[in-house]
Amino acid sequence: MATPSILLIVLVVCVAILLIVAIAWVARDRRNAHRHIAAEEIRESAKDEARDVRQREAWADETAARARAAQAESDVKAAQAAGLQQQAETHRSEAVDSREKLNQQWERADSVDPAVHTPEKSSGARKEHQDR
C-alpha cells in the first residue's frame, strides 16, 4: 500500500470518528434539551400543585381553628351546664328542706287545732294547704 492511500484511509477514519462524535454530541444535546423541557413542565405542574396544596393546608388550618373554637365553646357550655346542675341540686335540696319544714308546720298546726281529730283529716287538711 502506498503512503497516500494509508493517509487517505486514516483521514477517512478520522473524519468518520469525528462525524460519529459530532452526531453523538448533537444527539446528547437534544436529549438534554428535551429533558430540560420535561423538567420545566414538571416544575410548572409542581408549582400549580403547590398552590393547591397550600390552599388545602390553609383550609385544614381554618377548619382546625374552627374546631378548636367550637371545642372551647363546648367546654364553656359544659362548665356552665355543670354549674347550673350544681345550682339545681342546691335548690332541690333547699326545696326539700323547706318542704319538710312546711310539713312540720302543718303537722304542728294540726296537733294544736282541737277540731282535727284523726290522721286522715290532718293529712287531708295538709294536702288542701299544700295545693294553695
UniProtKB/TrEMBL annotation:
> Which residue ranges does UniProt annotate as crossing the membrane?
6-27
Q: Record keywords: Methyltransferase included?
A: no
Instruction: Report keywords, A-Z.
Output: Cell cycle, Cell division, Membrane, Transmembrane, Transmembrane helix
Q: Where is the composition biased (Basic and acidic residues)?
A: 42-65, 89-111, 118-132
| Annotated segments matching region Disordered | 42-132
Q: Which Gene Ontology BP annotations are present?
A: cell division
Provide ranges: composition bias, Low complexity: 66-88
- Domain of life of the source: Bacteria
This protein is called what?
Answer: FtsZ-interacting cell division protein ZipA
Look up and give the organism this protein is from: Mycolicibacterium fluoranthenivorans
